[in-house]
Amino acid sequence: MCDKEEKDMAASQVVREPEVFEFVKRSKEMMQQIMKEKGFTADEAKKAMGLKN
Known about the structure:
The protein is mostly helical. It is built from two helices and no strands.
């Protein structure tokens, strides 16, 4: 890989990191709101998603 490609990749990662952080934050907030509305506990939600036995 040439230096220009490496710099471009690094620049795109810097730009996207805050976007990814915001996406994860919003997703977590939405999931918590749904759980609250439906009355699910965290353990029940994890089991439903297959993250816990």
